[in-house]
Amino acid sequence: MWLLIGAFFSALTVILVKFYDNKHNNLFLLGVFLSECSLIYSYVQLLKMDNILTQFSLVKIIAILLVAIPSILFSWTKLTTSKSLGILFGAIAIYLLK
Description:
The chain is 84% helix and 0% strand. The mean pLDDT is 83. It is built from four helices and no strands. The protein is an all-alpha fold.
């Protein structure tokens, strides 16, 4: 459960920063702060579990996908072959860091 919560807040932070960059509304910065606080709490909960390296790697891989999918759907970025390979190799690299 904390794995998904951590991935959600990790992705939400990036998305809120993107919204702030487009709209310059300070409420998005408040959302970023709250999201980061929740992310830190979920990391603390993950530290209490066994196999933390695998858990952290999975959080980051899921967060990459949670940021990439809305970015493509809302046309913030166009998915190209190089970006697809970057997402794939980034996820593999994070997994291999464990």
